[in-house]
Design brief:
heterodimer; A: 180 residues; alpha+beta; 5 helices; 36% strand; globular; B: 171 residues; 7-stranded mixed β-sheet
């Protein structure tokens, strides 16, 4: 069943569905080697990746498997966050986010993901949201902890990206963790 | 138009008792279904996850952080149950709202609430226009929508009876 991607406003940010006009911005972000430093795949090197990303947003929405939201601050694209792998039987999904380096350290990821989670738990009747981060990415781990996620384990040597082996932390947030 | 800022947040499960109280207030019953719903009925009909199945998003309007109004948006095309059957544009959103605090009626807060919701909906680049459908004799609502930038297009038949079809185009 299709899942319309929501439009959400926070104190500082606007979260909205991606559009064709975001192609340049998403390319600039995902091809940035510093932004992709702890990503589970290399930075984009082919321009057509941006078009495929936008097509995938539409496909997720049509199939109801996820929602990717572009994040704007003062009218400018600063990054995105997503809820993917929505499983209505397990009542679970996975959270992800990515922001331009110049916007790091301002709490944007926490603010955006917090709004997305609030929508998701209310609208999708979720029980569990999972998120993973490279164990070297302390800033991302802090985002998850501020959102109430608990670190549940380490996936040893989970990723090999351009020859670099890395471990992954698994974080989980249950509906009852939020109420507590 | 009031210069008191109105903000919106998503409605949550925790708002249901408040909404139940609101939907039983005489000035809301007058224009919103005409019935006094029980708490169980509000729970069955207005939980965000229940509304999501019909692609309706519920919101709470706030003044100074204090809830004062209920609002909802929906995707017009494919609404079902006889609603908006001729709509073929997937970019059309519809809105409805009601001020819960009777003391705040007639002060321009409704106009600001509608503007805030329309702004939020147009933040999605895929949204082409916003529609609404007050009862043709609900002069207060019609005036509010006009001040917020809506134009009356004519009276249409809906499953709830005749309604004044009004639209707000993207600038």
């Amino acid at each position: 069943m299709p899942l319309p991607t929501p439009t959400l406003r926070t104190d500082r940010l606007l979260l909205r569905p991606f559009a064709e006009s975001d192609e340049e911005a998403i390319w600039a972000l995902q091809s940035d080697a510093n932004v992709a430093r702890y990503w589970d795949s290399p930075p984009w090197r082919e321009r057509e990746r941006a078009g495929r990303f936008l097509a995938m947003c539409k496909q997720m929405e049509a199939e109801g498997t996820g929602a990717r939201l572009a994040v704007e601050h003062e009218g400018r694209f600063v990054g995105w966050c997503c809820l993917v792998g929505i499983n209505p039987d397990y009542r679970s999904a996975r959270l992800g986010y990515c922001f331009q380096e110049i916007t790091w350290g301002r709490g944007f990821a926490t603010e955006a993901a917090g709004a997305l989670l609030q929508w998701a738990f209310a609208t999708l009747d979720l029980n569990r949201v999972q998120s993973e981060t490279d164990t070297r990415n302390g800033a991302s781990a802090r985002v998850l902890e501020k959102l109430g996620f608990k670190r549940e384990g380490t996936l040893r040597e989970d990723c090999i990206v351009d020859g670099v082996v890395s471990d992954t932390w698994v974080y989980g947030l249950l509906q009852r963790d939020r109420v507590a | 138009v009031s210069d008191v800022p109105v903000t919106l947040r998503l409605m949550t499960d925790d708002d249901i008792p408040m909404l139940h109280d609101w939907l039983n207030r005489p000035h809301i019953v007058e224009w919103w279904g005409g019935e006094r719903p029980t708490l169980d009925e509000v729970h069955e009909k207005y939980l965000p996850r229940v509304m999501a199945r019909d692609r309706v998003v519920p919101y709470i309007g706030l003044i100074g952080g204090v809830p004062f109004a209920y609002a909802q948006s929906y995707i017009a095309m494919g609404s079902g149950d006889g609603w908006w059957e001729g709509e073929t544009d997937p970019g059309v959103r519809g809105i409805d709202q009601s001020i819960a605090d009777a003391a705040l009626l007639g002060k321009g807060h409704g106009t600001n609430l509608v503007r805030a919701l329309v702004d939020l909906l147009f933040a999605d680049p895929a949204v082409t226009k916003v529609q609404t459908d007050p009862a043709p004799h609900n002069a207060r609502a019609i005036r509010c929508y006009e001040k917020a930038g809506f134009r009356a297009m004519g009276v249409v038949d809906t499953p709830d009876g005749p309604a004044l079809y009004m639209i707000c185009p993207r600038d």
